[in-house]
Design a protein that fits this description.
With 747 residues, the chain is of the alpha+beta class. The chain is 48% helix and 15% strand. The strands form six sheets. The protein has a nine-stranded mixed β-sheet with strand order 11-4-3-2-7-8-10-1-12, with helices on both faces. The chain has an eight-stranded mixed β-sheet with strand order 13-24-22-21-16-18-19-25, with helices on both faces. A hairpin with a 3-residue loop joins β7 (314-318) and β8 (322-326).
C-alpha cells in the first residue's frame, strides 16, 4: 500500500471530543458478581470446546459449521475480503441459504464498502435468505456536511457568509422531514438523503478515494479549475510560497484526523487533479467552500472524530448451538499458511470453537442488539441511497470519456456524458462479473492450494468444568450510542472487555502466594496500551498492588513482523517510559517483568508470519477474542471474546504450547533490555525505522529530503509527547490518561 494509505492510521494529534477526568480510579478485583455484571451472557452451557491455532484448521472448522447449518447462521466480521478463501466461504453461505438457512452477515462499513458489489451479489444469490448490513454508517451530520461540501455558490459573488447561510437553510429544509422506518431520521441521527454529488463524495470517503471526493466538490460547486490554474504563474513568488506549504498540507491530510484531515485531503486531491504536484492558489480558492467554521457544530465535529469506529467483532454462530470466534477475519491471510496464493502477511491467530448443550439464545440476543442498532447499522439498500457506488465503479470509464473527447478535439459539450452513458457498466452487469470472479477464485483455491493435514498446530479442548462468559465492547450504553470511554468507568461506557481485563489483573495479584505463584501473559498483536492498562501494569510493578508472586510477560510483534508499523513506532516510546519508571523502583512487592517480540525468520521470505492473536492469561483465567491491547480497541471499536475460567487443564495446555513457541528461537526473542535504551539511541533507531518506511511506501519518490526531515521531526515531537504522557500516567495522573486516550484513539 502507498504511504498515504498506511499513514492514515498515524498520529491523530487533535481530539475534538474532550473527556473529563475521573476523580478516583481505585481498581477492584474480579469476582463472580462483577463478571456477571460485565458479561453479555451468563455462563454458557458448554458441551465441547476447542482452541484452534492453525489457519487451515480454523478455516476448515468454519466451513464445516456453515455446511452443517440447519436453520440460522449469524456472522460479524471486520474484514470480509474479495479473495480465494472469502469466495469459498461466501459460496458456502449461498449454498446454505439455498437449502433454507437464514443468514445474517454484519460487516464493517469502512472496511468493506469498496466491495459493495460483492456483498450485493452475495445477498442476491442467497435470495431472501441472506441479509447483509454494514456497521459504521455516516451520521446525519456527516451526510449533511457531504451535501454542504458539494452544494453551493461556487465562484459566484455569493461565495461568502451569505452563501453559507443560504446553503445551511436549504440543507436543513431538505433534511427536516425525512423519515426512516416511520421515525424522523433526525431522532435516530441518520439519513439516507443525497444529492448527485454528495453521494459521490460519500462514496469517495468510504472507498478512501480522495480523487473522487475532489471530483464531487469541483463539479458540485462548479469550481472552474481551468480558470484558477490559468491564473497561476509557476515562477511567481506567490506560487513558490504555495509550494512550500506542500509538506504541511500533506501532513494535515494524512495524520491529523477528523474534519481538518478531510479538508486537507480534498484540497490536495483537487490541486493534484489540476496541476499534478503543484500546490498553488487553487488550494486557497477551494478553502472557502468547506464547512470548517460551521457554528455550534460540536456534535458534527464529534461524529467526524469518531468516523473510524470499526465493527471489530469476529463471530460465526450457527443454529444457536455452535460458534467460533477469536482474532481471524475472512481473508486469505487468516485462512492460509504460506503459499503462492498468500499475500505478504500470514497471520498467526487464535480461535475458539464452542458447542452448547442445546440451542442457546444468549449469544444470538447479543448479535440482535448490534444487528438492529439502526444508529450505526445500514442495509445495502440504504447504502445505495446515501452512498451509491455506481460512479466509483465507473470512474475509469469517466476518465476514458474525458480522454476520448479531448483527443477528438470536439466542441460538443455533451461528448463526455454521451461517451460515459454509452459505456456505463450497470449494477446488474457488475454482478455478473462478480460471480465470474468468485468462481475463478474458488477454482484457483481448489486447484492451487492444499490445506495442511500434517504437522498442524496443536488444538486444545476445554475442561468439562470450565465456565465461559461472552464479553463485548459495544458502541452504546443505555440504548444510546456512546463515544469513547473514561478510565475508571469502563463498564459504564460499554467497554466490558477492558473492565474485565483490569479487574482480572488485580485478582491475579491478590490470589498469588509463595505456594501458588501466578502468571499474567499478554499475547497480543498490537501493543500500544490505553491509559488504564498502562496504569494497571504500573501498579503491578511499583508496589501499589502487592504482586510479589506474579510474573508479567508481554509477547507481541516486532516492527519487522507487524502489518501496522505505526503501532510499534509509537509503542517504543510508551515502553521506554514504562521501563524507565520500573528501573527507578525499589519495591519488594512488584511483579517480575519480561517483554518479548516475534522475529522475522527470513528477511527474504515471501510471506511474513505476523502475530494476530488477542489472548490474555490472568493466572488461572484466559481471555481469547478480537480486542487488541491498544488504545483503538478500547476507545473506538466494537470487540468480542470469551472469558474462560475454572479450566486448569486447558490453561496448563495453553501455557505448554506457548512455552514451546517461545523456545522456538529466533521466532520469539526476549527484548526487555532493549526497551530501556537511552532516548538518544531510541531517536536514532526511530529515524532509521522512518527512513525504511518512507522508502517502502514512497515508491514514486514524491517526498523530497526536506519533507522527509520535517516529517521525522514532527514524529519525534509526537513520540516525545507519548513518553511524557505515559510517564505522567505511571505517576498517577488521571488527566494524562484521558488525554492520551483521546489523542491516540485512532492508532
Amino acid at each position: 500500500m502507498r504511504l498515504t494509505q498506511i499513514s492514515s492510521k498515524l498520529f491523530i494529534l487533535i481530539g475534538i471530543f474532550t473527556l473529563s477526568a475521573c476523580a478516583t480510579r481505585e481498581q477492584v478485583a474480579l469476582d463472580d458478581a462483577l463478571l456477571t455484571q460485565y458479561a453479555s451472557t451468563g455462563s454458557l452451557p458448554i458441551k465441547a470446546a476447542t482452541v484452534i491455532t492453525d489457519n487451515d484448521q480454523a478455516f476448515a472448522s468454519k466451513l464445516a459449521l456453515i455446511n452443517q447449518a440447519n436453520t440460522h447462521i449469524d456472522l460479524a466480521y471486520y474484514i470480509f475480503s474479495d479473495d480465494h478463501t472469502s469466495s469459498v466461504l461466501a459460496q458456502a453461505l449461498i449454498n446454505a441459504a439455498k437449502r433454507g438457512v437464514k443468514v445474517r452477515l454484519l460487516l464493517d462499513y469502512l472496511s468493506t464498502y469498496k466491495d459493495l458489489d460483492h456483498l450485493s451479489y452475495l445477498q442476491q444469490a442467497g435470495g431472501s435468505n441472506i441479509q447483509v448490513r454494514l456497521y459504521g454508517r455516516p451520521s446525519q451530520n456527516i451526510v449533511k456536511d457531504a451535501v454542504y461540501l458539494t452544494l453551493g455558490c461556487g465562484q459566484s459573488s455569493k461565495a461568502d457568509a451569505a452563501c453559507n447561510q443560504d446553503k445551511y437553510a436549504e440543507i436543513e429544509q431538505l433534511f427536516d422531514n425525512e423519515k426512516i422506518n416511520n421515525r424522523l431520521a433526525s431522532d435516530i441521527g441518520i439519513s439516507n438523503l443525497s444529492t448527485p454529488m454528495s453521494a459521490i463524495f460519500l462514496s469517495g470517503l468510504y472507498a478512501k478515494n480522495p480523487e473522487l471526493m475532489a471530483f464531487s466538490l469541483e463539479h458540485g460547486q462548479s469550481i472552474d479549475v481551468a480558470a484558477l490554474s490559468a491564473s497561476t504563474n509557476a515562477d511567481s513568488a506567490d506560487t513558490q510560497a504555495q509550494l512550500k506549504k506542500l509538506g504541511k498540507l500533506y501532513y494535515q491530510a494524512n495524520y491529523q484526523g477528523g474534519l481538518a484531515s478531510l479538508t486537507a485531503k480534498i484540497k490536495l486531491a483537487t490541486a493534484t487533479l489540476v496541476l499534478g504536484d503543484q500546490i498553488n492558489p487553487v488550494l486557497n480558492s477551494v478553502n472557502s467552500f468547506l464547512p470548517t467554521n460551521r457554528e455550534n457544530n460540536s456534535i458534527a465535529r464529534r461524529d467526524w472524530d469518531y468516523l473510524t469506529e470499526f465493527l471489530h467483532h469476529k463471530l460465526l454462530l450457527v443454529d444457536q448451538q455452535t460458534m467460533q470466534l477469536g482474532g481471524r477475519n475472512v481473508e486469505n491471510s487468516y485462512h492460509m499458511n504460506p503459499s503462492p496464493l498468500s499475500s505478504k502477511y500470514i497471520f498467526m491467530d487464535t480461535d475458539v470453537r464452542l458447542e452448547f448443550n442445546a440451542p442457546e439464545p444468549q449469544v444470538t440476543s447479543t448479535f440482535d442488539r448490534l444487528w438492529h442498532f439502526t444508529t450505526m447499522v445500514a442495509s445495502l439498500d440504504e447504502i445505495r441511497e446515501h452512498a451509491p457506488n455506481d460512479f466509483l465503479m465507473n470512474l475509469d470509464i469517466y476518465k476514458q470519456s474525458q480522454e476520448f473527447c479531448t483527443n477528438q478535439s470536439t466542441n460538443n459539450p455533451t461528448c463526455v456524458d454521451q461517451y460515459y452513458q454509452q459505456h456505463f457498466v450497470s449494477l446488474d452487469q457488475r454482478l455478473i462479473k462478480v460471480e465470474q470472479s468468485m468462481t475463478e477464485m474458488i477454482e484457483s483455491y481448489n486447484n492451487n492450494y492444499a490445506p495442511r493435514t500434517q504437522g498442524i498446530s496443536q488444538s486444545f479442548a476445554l475442561d468439562a468444568s470450565a465456565q465461559v462468559y461472552y464479553l463485548e465492547n459495544l458502541p452504546f450504553f443505555e440504548s444510546k450510542r456512546g463515544y469513547g470511554s473514561i478510565d475508571g468507568k469502563e463498564a459504564d461506557y460499554g467497554k466490558a472487555i477492558h473492565a474485565t481485563w483490569l479487574a482480572s489483573l488485580k485478582k491475579t495479584c491478590e490470589q498469588a502466594t509463595v505456594n501458588n505463584p501466578q502468571q499474567v501473559i499478554i499475547h497480543n498483536a498490537y501493543f500500544f496500551m490505553p491509559g488504564n492498562l498502562l496504569a494497571a501494569l504500573g501498579a503491578m510493578v511499583d508496589g501499589s498492588w502487592d504482586c510479589t508472586h506474579v510474573s508479567l510477560q508481554i509477547i507481541t510483534n516486532s516492527i519487522e513482523t507487524t502489518d501496522l508499523n505505526v503501532v510499534n513506532l509509537l509503542a517504543m516510546w510508551q515502553m521506554k517510559a514504562f521501563e524507565d519508571y520500573r528501573a527507578q523502583l525499589t519495591s519488594t512487592t512488584s511483579a517480575t517483568f519480561n517483554y518479548s517480540e516475534y522475529q522475522q525468520a527470513n528477511e527474504n521470505e515471501t510471506s511474513t508470519l505476523s502475530l494476530h492473536s488477542k489472548v490474555m492469561l490472568f493466572g488461572d483465567d484466559l481471555f481469547i477474542g478480537s480486542a487488541n491491547a491498544d488504545v483503538r480497541s478500547y476507545m473506538l471499536d466494537t470487540n468480542n471474546g470469551l472469558m474462560i475460567m475454572n479450566a486448569p487443564h486447558f490453561v496448563s495446555q495453553y501455557k505448554q504450547w506457548l512455552a514451546a513457541e517461545i523456545d522456538t528461537r529466533p521466532k520469539i526473542a526476549e527484548r526487555t533490555q532493549q526497551i530501556g535504551i537511552s532516548q538518544q539511541k531510541l531517536k536514532v533507531k526511530m529515524n532509521h525505522v522512518m527512513d525504511l518506511l518512507l522508502a517502502k511506501y514512497d515508491k514514486n519518490n514524491r517526498i523530497d529530503h526536506q519533507q522527509a526531515e520535517d516529517f521525522k521531526e514532527k514524529v519525534q515531537g509526537i513520540t516525545q509527547r507519548i513518553y511524557n504522557l505515559s510517564t505522567k500516567i505511571l505517576n498517577g495522573d488521571n488527566k494524562a490518561q484521558d488525554e492520551f486516550n483521546r489523542l491516540f484513539k485512532t492508532i
